[in-house]
Design a protein that fits this description.
Blueprint (H helix, E strand, L loop, with lengths): L7 E5 L4 H12 L4 E5 L10 H6 L7 E3 L5 E3 L1 H11 L11 H18 L5 H7 L4 H25 L17 H15 L8 H10 L3 H6 L10
Parallel strand pairs: 1-2
Antiparallel strand pairs: 1-3, 3-4
Helix pairs in contact: 1-3, 1-7, 4-6, 4-7, 5-6, 7-8
């Protein structure tokens, strides 16, 4: 089998926000791939087998047809955008709007998501699930409040907003929707962020977002 006929491989977990970002990018770039689930609850990411794929023992990991490995969700998304720039572009052409997309991406991927990562919370509160949930709720709510303000400042309408930046799906939307799910998971009142809520509700009408949602993945509990 040649590299041209091999599929890429995505290692991930149905409920992983970072994996969902990559699933969305693959869907928009129309890339066919094989999926290999890694059950985080069973600590499969810590296995010797997976450590050979990603020494960081984290998901997602993306294996190219030629065997090269990429990790970190946004590095993978950037790779897909660079490799398939004409298939549903996920970055605007305007430099300022491109910067706005990356601002939203970093706001979530660097500032909000890492603080509520289950692994981090388990280390901070090893024997107290209630404290973990309180921690996640507090920090997600704080981060989303700031993001809501920035989206409002950019002119987004709380009742009609459909995308984070511009008038089409961008990387920012690929990151926003999984974080919205996390907010609901930790009982954050998402109605307090009407712009984010409006964007989420629109995006979840799109086939790519529906198909890649956690509940529709092969490793999701039935």
């Amino acid at each position: 089998m040649t590299d041209e006929t091999k599929k890429s491989v995505l290692y991930g977990y149905f409920r992983s926000s970072a994996t969902w970002r990559v699933r969305l990018a693959l869907a928009y770039k129309k890339v066919d791939y094989d999926y290999r689930p890694i059950n985080l609850l069973k600590q499969e990411q810590r296995s010797e087998e997976f450590e050979k794929v990603n020494p960081s023992k984290k998901i997602p990991a993306y294996i190219l047809p030629d065997g090269k490995v990429l990790t970190q969700s946004m590095a993978i998304v950037d790779y897909l955008e660079d490799t398939y720039p004409d298939k549903n572009p996920l970055l605007p052409k305007d430099p300022y709007e491109r910067a706005l997309v990356r601002e939203v991406v970093n706001e979530i991927a660097c500032d909000i998501h890492p603080i509520q990562n289950p692994g981090l919370m388990a280390e901070i509160f090893p024997d107290n699930v209630e404290k973990r949930n309180e921690w996640a709720h507090t920090h997600i709510a704080r981060g989303l409040k700031a993001l809501e303000s920035k989206l409002a400042a950019s002119g987004k309408d709380p009742k009609e907003a459909q995308y984070c930046v511009g008038n089409s799906v961008t990387m920012a939307d690929l990151v926003l929707v999984p974080q919205y799910y996390n907010g609901r998971r930790f009982s954050v009142d998402m109605s307090e962020y009407p712009i984010i809520d409006s964007i989420f509700k629109h995006l979840m009408t799109l086939p790519e977002f529906k198909a890649t949602a956690p509940e529709n993945q092969p490793d999701a509990p039935q």
